Amino acid sequence: YDFPIPSYQAANVSAYLSAVKKPNAQYATGRGTPDVSTLGEDFTVVDHGISIGVGGTSCSSPSFAGLVTLLNEVCLKQAGKTLGFANPLFYQNPSMFTDVTKGTNAIGENANAGWEAIKGWDAATGLGTPAFDRMLAVVQKNCAAVA
Fold first, then answer.
1. Contact 130, 64 (CB under 8 A)
2. What is the pTM of this model?
3. Measured CA distances, 61 to 11, 34, 94 (Å)
4. 88-99 burial code (b ≥16 CB/10 A, e <16)
């Protein structure tokens, strides 16, 4: 709601908002988030020599960034350039992700104002979770087209 809806996601956001009950009208306009989801639970980090379990966005974001880095390497080898801003590619190829169709983000502070997951893009899980083999296939095809 802080930024205008980008053209590459406008149809997705519109379809979603038409299909679900809006938990809070304030969030029913503007750019839809998240774009994607990545599991961020049960990661182990070493802090001052002690292994501890962590989770959340601090785990899922760098995990997804690592996948994009691998995809950039493929594109660099194939076409001599990186993907650049990848969101339009993701929205044009939602099959790159495993769609999450059940659940909600109505937990914790959002318990009374969460969004539900449905088929297609949703405000709980975005396009879904990455399926690297399908992402790789799309990126190889896309980068080959511009090589």
1. yes
2. 0.89
3. 25, 11, 19
4. ebbbebeebbeb
Which residues are CB-neighbours of 97 under 8 A, at least 6 positions away?
A: 36, 90, 126, 127, 128, 129, 130, 131, 134, 135
Q: Is there a contact between 116 and 104 (Cβ–Cβ < 8 Å)?
A: yes
Q: Which two structure tokens, joined as six digits, stand for 65?
A: 């960034």
C-alpha of 77 from chain center: 25
Tokens, residue 25:
């009208």
What does DSSP assign to residue 71? H
pLDDT in tens, 63-94: 999 999 999 999 999 999 999 999 999 999 99
* Token digits of residue 72: 């950039």
Mean pLDDT of the chain: 92
